[in-house]
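USER:
Before I trust my own judgement here, I would like a peer's view. Write it directly below this note and I will take it from there.

ASSISTANT:
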Amino acid sequence: MTLLVISPDYASHLLPLATLAAAWQDAGESVVVATGPATADIVADFGFRRAELVLGRGSNPGVIRAEQQPPGEDEALRGFFAATRHGMVATLRYQAEARRNDLLWEPVDRARAVLDVVDRVQPDQVIVDHLAFSARLGLAAAGVPHADVVLGHPTALPVGDEVYGYPPAWPAALTPSTPELAALHRLCRDVRDDFTAEWNAALHVLAPGATPSTDAFAEHGDLLLLNYPAALHDPARTTLLPPHAFLGSAVRDEPAGDDVQDWLAADDAPVVYVSFGSFLSARGDVLATVLDALRPLGLRVAVATGSATGLPDVPSSWLLRPFLPQVALLERSALLVTHGGNNSVTESLTAGVPMVLLPFSTDQFAGAAAVEAAGLGTALDPNTATSADLTSAARAVLEGPAPHLARSIGDGLRRAPGRDVARAALRG
């Protein structure tokens, strides 16, 4: 038996997919990962075979920097970072406009490249990242059965009257005006229609007799795998989903290096772990405010600084590195301060750790709203929150019911690892 995993060339996408695939490997089955060169080391570390497949212009081996992207993609990344400084609506508008060009990159050519990999590998089962639209287009056009893995918040697959790119919920701290939201909704509808037209044009080339899509963002595989805890998902929305399974999380084993192990062993005091992920660590100004806010708490602090620059001096007892083993540190943490990316949220909940969230973009707003609604943390506006605001928020989370609630969620997620749920779901 052979499992084929199809992933964009981004570490944040491949790591959870590879974690799921490890269940097949542990059962003695073969795993082939089709992805680009930037994440080849991750494939090798998991011990999988690799098939070369480039699905987009950009890549991210773990920490993304604009200067390491190809021409055009570097400017797009800088534009995105600039938009985040203007707030939620400006960022979502920038991302909506970018979707006109980046989610279906060379769709016919990339779809055929995917099918070429399928022909060579001859897999028994296929799992593919939901955001790999060109790959899913090829699989759908050729009628290749596959499981579609939503690695972000479940709203990445719109249902009902939802429009892709327009958050169905956002935290109380973010209060865009009604006219701003109305204009954003119109833009997202226009982009959806343009994207669907592009999808249908490529589909017609690949499979001339195929039924056109009415909303390409709502297309999905034969089975939907949601990397998200069912307990945080609105039951009414769940009834609208196609055949699916909630994985809870896809948390990998991640041993800490000697320096991190030594730091953890030096003191058993509670740890605050801080990370804005591989992209948004570029917002060093917000990260600097967070570091100032954590000083009065008197706790140990570990910070994944990513590409951030201009950070203030911090106590010598703190641990700062461009990259840290997040899973290992969360196992010792009392609090996570995060941008609210889905990997960070689900990994934090699996460890039973509450959160202070500073959402910047895409599904981070819906994810932060869900965390707040479940009493697992609190969210602030990253562009307006002061260090005093963040100190108060951290204290309130640590001293309130969130730690107990997070531990309860974590107990359930650890009892049913997402990798095992995924394999069982595909085996029927």
About this structure: The CA atoms of residues 51 and 117 lie 7 Å apart. The first helix runs from residue 11 to 26. The first strand starts at residue 2 and ends at 6.
